[in-house]
Amino acid sequence: CARLRVAVAAPPADVRAAARRALASTGGLTGSPEAVADTPTGALATVRLGPFLDDVAVEVDNAPRGAVLWVRSASRVGRSDLGVNRWRARRIVDAVAGWLPEGAVQR
After folding, report:
1. CA-to-CA distance for 19 and 106, rounded, in angstroms?
2. Which of 48, 62, 73, 91 has its CA 20 to 30 A from that of 79?
């Protein structure tokens, strides 16, 4: 399981929209999205990598100067993912950053 918390200098609604776009596209993920669902604060996805299904959650919270982006990627089975979940979470953050003004995502 990998969890990332990233400060974003953009309105929460814009960050939520960027997160939904990132999950709906395959560019920010390892594997193919099987299902993507919007939530009130972000989006959820089930991702297939070979025979394995992983769960990805992206949530956006309000912050005093923009938003906080939370990304969680977890394997459904097994003990080790060989770093795939951490890599996927970072790629999702990169994909979200691509939908926002340059410099908005503080890494």
Report:
1. 15
2. 91
Residue 82 backbone class (left: φ over 0; alpha: ψ -120 to 50; beta: rest): left
Tokens read off for 83: 């770093």
pLDDT tens for 27-83 read 546 666 677 788 888 888 888 777 878 888 999 999 999 999 999 988 888 777 788
pTM (2 d.p.): 0.86
SS3 85: helix
H/E element holding 1?
none
Question: Exposed, middle or buried, 33 (CB in 10 Å: 0-12/13-18/19+)?
Answer: middle
Exposure of 101 by Cβ count < 10 A (0-12 exposed, 13-18 middle, 19+ buried)? Answer: exposed
